[in-house]
């Protein structure tokens, strides 16, 4: 369930800056629990890149 074009169901597309993590689209640019990728926690005191 990591297909960005079919995330969790056929035809459910994730937006730019999102990744399909376990069937849900997550914003890996703003989510400290998915820091740049699925299930990658940001180090303490760090946040994902917000201004790209």
TrEMBL record:
UniProt source species: Musa troglodytarum
Keywords: Signal
Family membership: Belongs to the STIG1 family.
Protein's recorded name: Stigma-specific protein, Stig1
Lineage per the UniProt record: Eukaryota, Viridiplantae, Streptophyta, Embryophyta, Tracheophyta
Domain of life: Eukaryota
InterPro entries listed in its UniProt record: Stig-like
